[in-house]
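User: Here's a structure from my thesis project, written as structure tokens. My advisor, Dr. K., wants to see whether a designed sequence matches the one we expressed. Can you design one independently, without my sequence as a hint?
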């Protein structure tokens, strides 16, 4: 009887979900690094921390003033980065997220599509948030992939050619005031390339959805707290939410290229060492 129960689809699905959040030896190192990073940011930019706490009022209970959305985002991302963590596999994701985040923040702030309350272009303290978000999206993507593995590939082909071109049209309208900027043209060309050269429709759609899902809460927090402000003054703009999805797709494609070329680069390196 127990063997029959174990083979039921429902039990397999539950087991698959549990395995998605399984902690490894790297999980604790990942979480410790996350906390250390936050402490370093707080130490280096201590005046910003003091400014944040200056808004707390003595006449109101602390629990009323605590930023519940920020705590929720922090808790979610902490759980995500610890799920099936593997330092060797995660390090490229972290580096790609770091570099990609710097490029995106430079584009947005230099063209003034969005501005930070500190008027930095871009602020260095926001860059580390990108690799953390990239790791969270990677875990969320794997989780959704497990849940949707029975959905036919043709569904994702259709979704790809609806969602991503739709985003591109929205992107054109949103960033049109900066169309003459070289950074904007590069963003349009790169996004167009990603859309027109799909290698895996299922993964692209799921990464786009995962990135947009997390992006909504990040943008909701940032724009409603006036940490950053878009030129349209929306809180948040729909484009910004979906832009996180497109950024995630771009990072994912770069990561796939890294996996293809890294063995060849390692072999080339070893040959040179032997010589």
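Assistant: Designed independently from the structure alone:
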């Amino acid at each position: 009887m127990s063997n029959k129960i174990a083979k039921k689809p429902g039990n397999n699905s539950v087991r698959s979900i549990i395995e998605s959040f399984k902690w490894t030896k790297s999980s604790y190192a990942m979480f410790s690094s996350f906390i250390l990073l936050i402490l370093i940011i707080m130490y280096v930019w201590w005046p910003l921390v003091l400014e944040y706490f200056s808004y707390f009022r003595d006449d109101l209970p602390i629990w009323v003033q605590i930023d519940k959305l920020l705590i929720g985002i922090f808790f979610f991302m902490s759980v995500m980065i610890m799920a099936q963590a593997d330092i060797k596999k995660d390090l490229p994701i972290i580096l790609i997220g770091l570099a990609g985040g710097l490029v995106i923040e430079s584009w947005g702030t230099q063209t003034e599509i969005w501005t930070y309350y500190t008027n930095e272009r871009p602020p260095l303290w926001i860059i580390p948030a990108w690799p953390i978000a990239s790791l969270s999206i990677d875990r969320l993507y794997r989780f959704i992939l497990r849940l949707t593995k029975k959905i036919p590939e043709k569904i994702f082909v259709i979704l790809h050619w609806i969602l991503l071109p739709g985003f591109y049209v929205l992107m054109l309208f949103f960033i049109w005031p900066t169309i003459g900027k070289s950074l904007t043209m590069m963003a349009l060309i790169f996004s167009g390339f990603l859309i027109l050269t799909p290698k895996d429709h299922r993964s692209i759609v799921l990464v786009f959805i995962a990135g947009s899902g997390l992006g909504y809460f990040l943008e909701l927090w940032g724009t409603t707290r006036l940490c950053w402000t878009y030129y349209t003054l929306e809180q948040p703009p729909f484009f910004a939410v979906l832009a996180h999805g497109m950024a995630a797709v771009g990072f994912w494609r770069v990561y796939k290229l890294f996996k293809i070329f890294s063995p060849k680069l390692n072999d080339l390196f070893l040959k040179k060492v032997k010589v």
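When you compare it with your expressed construct, this may help: The chain has twelve helices and two strands.
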